[in-house]
């Protein structure tokens, strides 16, 4: 089965063969699977953080044991989750606005802070306007399903995030998938579209979430122009990390003015929760009416929005410690490669460490945590089982000592388990 087909599945192989039974039969099937074969994700689901996400934090394992770990599993790349200015703004707004909104944006769910954040996000990207959507997942679903419908075609990179595929499914547009970052395949698909099918959208992650590599966005935009397609980029992991001033993949590729739709999330570098879309004023106006995940979903709490305003001021001024982040990314990637690990073609704060064997991966991850290093694992259905890996996320708050200790531990345990020679 190709990753293209796998992307449309979600633990389907845990289901009973005969799908036409009681809808709850699959609950038992999954339960049996977990008990019999210890699903790779079981441990991850039962580890609890006992404090803020920082370079070091305390976790409690399934067996109740707690310990301090070096954090290599958080997407808060610039450590903004705990930035004093962000936390203070959040606390003040909580006192003034309360902790939740209690309404969708178009009812009583928009404060002055929400509009201020939309303007800051739009200005950050040099776009006309922006819309806040409750999370990154629902931003992709809402934007694609609002813009595309039956008769249109959405052309996806095979490694796009699941929320993009879910948005496509909801849209009822035709869905085509090109091999990961493969421009020849993309062009072949574009060249075979019937002349009459004019509603064409190419969607790509900017930074790919499982591999940390970057879309060839300038070339994609050039193809889009040649074949009359619109371009949408989901830059969840690019914001604040890649590009000369941290404005993401389009800035890195020098094609910011050729991207029609940028979707992002406040859950990675901004360290909070929420999603957004930026583009022309008309696009954003249209989405306010037709993106159902905006129209019918309660808006982001004001304290979070207040924190995000500070985040975007820091990002705007490139004052959130991106230089230190890149020092840490290079140090960790070079350190892993020098020790013989396969880190794929990462160009961002996400560094995969390919293991390729699920049993070894689970043991590696658990041993690392027991030895004070917190990592995440990625396996099916997010990637093929034979490409299963640790997924390291680098933060700018990691100290030199944190990184040296982590590298030594990863190397020692990787050798014990046979991941490296
Ligand atoms: C590329 C990409 N897009 C979208 C999302 C969804 O964002 P959120 O967690 O804010 O819903 C994620 C995060 O998992 C992601 O990695």
Polypeptide structure, described:
This protein is an alpha/beta fold and 421 residues long. The chain has two domains: 38-78 and 321-417, Aspartate Aminotransferase, domain 1 (Alpha-Beta Complex); 84-316, Type I PLP-dependent aspartate aminotransferase-like (Major domain) (Aspartate Aminotransferase, domain 2). The chain is 41% helix and 15% strand. The protein has 16 helices and 14 strands. The chain has helices spanning 3-6, 25-37, 42-46, 84-97, 112-125, 136-147, 162-171, 183-191, 217-227, 249-253, 281-290, 292-295, 302-316, 322-338, 358-370, 400-417; strands at 48-49, 56-60, 66-71, 129-133, 153-157, 174-178, 200-205, 230-234, 261-265, 275-279, 350-354, 373-374, 376-378, 389-393. It has a seven-stranded mixed beta sheet with strand order 4-10-9-8-7-5-6, with helices on both faces. Strand 2 (56-60) and strand 3 form a beta hairpin. Helix 4 packs antiparallel against helix 13 (302-316), helix 6 runs parallel beside helix 7 and helix 15 packs across helix 16. The longest helix has 18 residues, at 400-417. Residues 1-10 have low confidence and may be disordered. The structure holds pyridoxal-5'-phosphate. Pyridoxal-5'-phosphate binds at residues 135-137, 140, 161, 163, 205, 209, 234, 236-237, 265, 267, 275.
């Amino acid at each position: 089965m190709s990753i293209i087909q796998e992307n449309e599945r979600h633990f389907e192989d845990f289901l009973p063969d005969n799908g036409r039974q009681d809808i709850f039969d699959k609950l038992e099937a999954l339960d049996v699977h977990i008990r019999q074969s210890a699903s790779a994700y079981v441990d991850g689901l039962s580890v609890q953080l006992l404090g803020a996400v920082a370079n070091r934090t305390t976790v409690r394992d399934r067996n109740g044991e707690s310990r301090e770990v070096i954090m290599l599993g958080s997407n808060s790349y610039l450590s903004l989750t705990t930035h004093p200015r962000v936390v203070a703004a959040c606390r003040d707004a909580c006192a003034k606005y309360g902790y939740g909104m209690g309404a969708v944006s178009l009812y009583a769910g928009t404060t002055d802070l929400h509009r201020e954040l939309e303007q800051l996000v739009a200005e950050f990207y040099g776009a006309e306007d922006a819309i806040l959507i409750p999370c990154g997942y629902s931003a992709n679903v809402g934007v694609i399903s609002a813009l595309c419908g039956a008769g249109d075609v959405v052309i996806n990179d095979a490694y796009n995030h699941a929320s993009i595929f879910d948005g496509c499914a909801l849209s009822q547009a035709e869905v085509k998938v090109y091999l990961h970052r493969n421009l020849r395949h993309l062009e072949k698909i574009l060249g075979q579209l019937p002349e009459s099918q004019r509603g064409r959208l190419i969607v790509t992650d900017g930074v790919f979430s499982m591999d940390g590599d970057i879309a060839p966005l300038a070339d994609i935009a050039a193809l889009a122009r040649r074949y009359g397609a619109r371009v949408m980029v989901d830059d969840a992991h690019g914001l604040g990390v890649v590009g000369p001033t941290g404005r993401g993949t389009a800035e890195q590729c020098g094609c910011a003015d050729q991207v029609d739709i940028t979707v992002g999330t406040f859950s990675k570098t901004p360290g909070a929760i929420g999603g957004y879309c930026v583009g022309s004023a008309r696009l954003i106006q249209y989405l306010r009416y037709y993106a159902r995940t905006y129209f019918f979903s309660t808006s982001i709490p004001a304290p979070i929005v207040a924190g995000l305003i500070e985040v975007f001021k820091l990002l705007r001024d490139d004052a959130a410690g991106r230089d230190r982040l890149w020092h840490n990314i290079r140090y960790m990637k070079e350190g892993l490669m020098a020790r013989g690990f396969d880190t794929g073609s990462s160009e961002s704060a996400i560094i995969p460490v390919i293991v390729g064997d699920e049993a070894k991966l689970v043991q590696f991850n658990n041993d690392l945590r027991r030895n004070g290093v917190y990592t995440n694992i990625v396996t099916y259905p997010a990637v093929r089982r034979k490409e299963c890996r640790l997924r390291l996320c680098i933060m700018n708050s990691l100290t030199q000592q944190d990184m040296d200790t982590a590298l030594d531990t990863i190397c020692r345990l990787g050798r014990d388990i046979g991941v490296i020679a």
